[in-house]
Structure formats: C-alpha cells, structure tokens
Amino acid sequence: MSKLNKDILFLIFDELQDDSKFLFSCLMVNRIWCETGVPILWKNPWCYDINYNKDYLYNIITSYLSDDIKEFLTSQSIRLPAFSHHSLLFDYLSFCRSINVNTINIITSIGSTSSYNQFLLQQEFYGLFMKKFPELKYLDMKSIKHQIFYFPEARFRFESLFELTCDTLINFSYFYGLAQLCQYIQRLIIVNLDPNNYHGIAKLIGVQKNLKYFEWKDEHELYVPRLDSYKKILLALEKNANTITDLKIHFTFVNNHTLPKVLPKFHKLKTLITRFDNFNEEQLKMCVYHDLEIFKIDYHYLKAASIIVENSGGHIKKILLGPFNAYADNIGEDSFIFIRNIHKNCPLIEYLPLIFPPTKKHFVEIEELLKICQNLKLLLLIIYDYSIYEESIYDEKILEYGENLLKILISSTLKTWEGTSILTSNYTYEEDDYKKLINKYKNNGVIKDFRCESYTNVANMDFKI
C-alpha cells in the first residue's frame, strides 16, 4: 500500500477527502503520501475539526504576512509566530480553493481578544487569500464584515466561484458587489435570518447564468404580514428555471402566491423540496418533472405528492415526508392513492415513507408495491388507527396490524428486495416472538437490519440505520 504511485494515491485521497482522521494519518506514512495528501487537505482546510486544527492554520496563514504588516500587527499587541512561510515544506495557500468566514473569525481570535485587532487580522487574511489562491471555488460568508470583493485581485478569484453560502443579515449592498463579479455560481445556499430586505440577494440570483443548485432556509421566528414576502426571490429564481436541477425551498410562511406560478417552470428538476400550501389541483398538474429523483413534501400534502409522482418520469429514487399531521383531512384515501401512484410510477424507488390506516385495501396496495418496487433500501411504515381508545384493545390491534404487515414484508422480501433495512418506532417488535422471526430473516440475508428507534429518527429518512 505504501508503494502506490502518486496518481493512484491522489485518486484514493480525493475520494476520502472528507475523512480528516484518515488524511492526517496518511501524512505520516512517507514523503510521497505527505506530498499527495497536503494539497487535498488544503483545498478546503476549514471543513475539518477546527478545535484540533486552528493553531496550525493560524500559524501557517500568518507566516505569509510581509515583514511590514507583521511589524504593524505586533505593535497592536497581536501575537504572531516567529517563522516565515519560506521555511515551510509546502506553499499551503497555493492549494486552497475556499473561504469559510466563521472559521476565519475563530482562527483570528488566537492572535488577540480585541475585536478591533481581530478585524485587522481578518482583513490581512482576506488580502492574502486574494493574492495567493489560484482560484476561489467555495465561499461561506455567513457573518462576514469585510467587503473582500474590493481587493484588486478579487475579480479574478470570484469569477471562478462555484458555491456560495450566505445569510440575509449581510447588508444588501454587499450582494450588489458580488453580482458584478459572480455570475457563474452553480450552488447557492441562503440562510434567511432577516425577512425584511431581499433586494440585494434577488439581484445576485437574477444575474446567474449557470445556477444548478438553490437552497433557501428560513431560520427566524419573525412574523411577516406581507402577502407575498418571497416574491422577489422567486421571480429572480424564475430567470434560472432552465438551469436549476436541485431546488430546496424551506419557507416558514405559507401566504405565498407566487410559488404556484413559478414552480411549474422548473422542468429540469432532479431534486425538489418545498411546500404546496396554496396550490390548487390544476396548478399541481402543471408541475411536471420528468427527471425528478428526490422529492420531499409534508405528510398532509399527500394528495399533492400523488399528483407530482403521477406526472414524474419514473426516475424517482427517494421520497421524504415532513412531520406527520394526524388530523389532516382525508388522509386515509389520500394515502391509498399515494401508495398506488408509487408502485405505478416509481419502479426505481429506494427510499420511501408510507403512512396509512390498517385497512385491507391499504395492505393490498402495499403488497403490490413491494412486488413491483424491487430497489427499495429503506422503507418507513406508519400505521395509524385513532378509532382505538381502550388500552387492552389497542395492544391487541397493534399486534394484529404488525402480524399482517410482517406477513406481507416476509412474503415480498423473499421474492424481491433482499438486504433491506427496516426502522420502526413501535417497540412491540422488541418482544421475543418478533425478535426470533426478525433474526431468522436477518441471518438469512433477507433483512439487512431491523431496529426500533425514536419516532424522530424513524421519521427522518436520512437517519443512518
């Protein structure tokens, strides 16, 4: 292994670039491994454990400062390392392609506890990055205080920006500056912390020419009385409807009238995560996504989900459902249609949540689904029956429903999808009789894993089983 050539090592290290423990240990093997691993680690050095890494990063970055700047910073009582970057084994900053503002803020606190001094250090760091980085691919500028696009070299760095993460607390004029430099961003992630001013962000979105991934996350609890508070954002997004393939919109407010008009225009979507509060049936039928692979919607919009699935191109692999609303209208019939549309239109489905009452027709549809959908890897099943009130009857009914469901699962798995993992939040299946049956099929390789978890983990389809 230690004799692999550099090209093979690079491919291995690049594939495992998110595993910092592995990469750091590789640096100690020999010189070739070290020379191959350092450039990969330094492409995005901010993504690793900062508590472990911050002194190392601070010393290396400050070593690049000129003697004049070091002298000035030292006069401000800022602590700097004694060595120069000329004594380093590698030109580390020449490998870097990313900036994370929050991490830079943490690192500069090493030099001084003074906010003013930290600001000075940050400014010098950004100046270095603009000079030394060959290109800037990733920028996470949440909480930024510096208008780094004013550096002379900034235009050449920002032209190559691939991914931008930001928040709405940043002054809107900052986004006007970025809009002049960054028009080929492919991934844009926005955290909405201030719902009052979207002018600058809308401008930045609107000028993009190759935007493929867009994510908007509301993370505030402020009430906004405006009827269409997201209109500027959605109209700017509409200009990118022909390029966006992944759209994740986490809106807090439901009083939006622009989304039903804009969303049907995104015909190339592979990922769609949003809400469908104000969509009527006619508007839903206009949402046709033939390339859709990942889809998330709330439980109480099962009717909407069924329409989206029915109009998809048969490529859906992953469906996620938001929090379960037990009192949603007509959820029994909606879930029946949803299950039927899945097995009719999603032969490639791998991740699937289902909620249904324990009726015969629902069990029949589930059995049919399991026969057709042979690629299933993770199946979430929620049975609800709120007609049961007495505890003794409830326990008896739960066992009856579980027995019926297990019969369907066992019959179907033997014929189709071996190696599937199953999560449940019902601890009834922890009883000895069920354990014996489940372990039998785990040992035979029919079921990869069967675990009881909290409802939160079970409802989260991204939970690692």
TrEMBL record:
- Supply the InterPro entries for this chain: LRR_dom_sf
* Origin: domain of life: Eukaryota
Record protein name field: F-box domain-containing protein
Its source organism is Rhizophagus irregularis (strain DAOM 197198w)
> According to the entry, what is the taxonomic lineage of the organism?
Eukaryota, Fungi, Fungi incertae sedis, Mucoromycota, Glomeromycotina
